[in-house]
Automatic annotation (TrEMBL):
Keywords tagged on the record: ATP-binding, Kinase, Nucleotide-binding, Transferase
Residues annotated as transmembrane: none
One GO CC annotation: plasma membrane
SMART domains in the cross-refs: DAGKc
Gene Ontology terms for molecular function: ATP binding; kinase activity
Pfam family, one: DAGK_cat
Record-given protein name: Diacylglycerol kinase family enzyme
Amino acid sequence: MIANPRAGRAGGRRLARALTDLRAGGVCVDVARPQGPADARARAAGAAASGYDVVVAAGGDGTVAEVAAGLLDGAGSPDGRRPALGVLPLGTANVLAHELGLPRRPEAAARVLRAGHRRVLWPGIVNGRPFMMMASVGIDSHIVHHMDAGLKRRTGKLAYVWALLGAAFRYRYPPVAVTVEAPDGHTETLRGPLVLITRGRCYGGPLVVAPEADIGTPLLWAVVLTRGGAWATARYGLALLAGRLPRQPGVRLCPARRVRLAAAEPGADSAGAALPLQADGDAIGTLPAEIGVGPVALEVLAPA
């Protein structure tokens, strides 16, 4: 188990409860507490090479992404097998956990890990970096790049709500050019100020943005919101909360094998910098971006 010591507001207590359940059920668990994202990735690669059956990411979506990247980096055990990825959701949004249907209570999540049911997960790749659920550019990536980590640990999802309220009228909503290569090879270019490239259905937790997406198939979905401005953002947000975002005017959903993102016009975002990019809730640089599906799938533990 690779545990992020800073995940969530009560991550330490929740981790202890899960470990108690696992060990009471006869599971032998070695716990590593990495010093940062690169260390988490390196430890996961080492665990893959050491023959562990399962490597559990205990933390939020960023921790899960780093551990999964490490499993993909590793050569696997001498017989060529990679460990399965387990998820103990301790973070703020826990989007992959919602996608998999994992319970929030640590004891219940531990029981899923003990049961050992596996399903396939195809990771996405953005500019050479694996991601499990989503990469995006727009006001949400702007917020991720400027998020106060301490505030996020103290207040959880409220930190994003306050940040969105503060940014909605200041952000300039610069357009992004989205070149989508469809599964049949057809190419289309769209424009919009907020673009989500997702592997799964969920966004920000349990909210559904791409109803037909399936992490078990090697396919991306591009969700392009074509209208900018604070009021359009508010309408999109309310529709997302109500489960109606995919049916809103100005929203395009496109299945894709590959996607390229670039600034549609010269300029910068409202902070005076190049357009920021985020993946699985972590800041990962700026545009342009090339996004596809990785060549190797992982097995992930999930409810039966």
